[in-house]
Amino acid sequence: MSNVVPLLRPRPAPDAAARATAAVVSDLVTIAEQLHDIGARAAALGRPRTEAERTVQMVLDAVTSIERALDTITDGGDYTPF
């Protein structure tokens, strides 16, 4: 009988589909963050109010679409690829 306890066990490598999904999720999150920044910058351009509101609304619509895509690909936000 041995009193040595293995502390580290090799973990199986994640499959290619999980890696690809994680990459897409990461890209979508990055794009959503960038769109939020773009919306803020567009609002500060000094354009006429109605034009600025329409521009910001369109950018927010794009963010909403990306968030819906994230919900779909992550099954409602419950996603652990590895």
UniProtKB/TrEMBL annotation:
<protein>
    <recommendedName>
        <fullName>Histidine kinase</fullName>
    </recommendedName>
</protein>
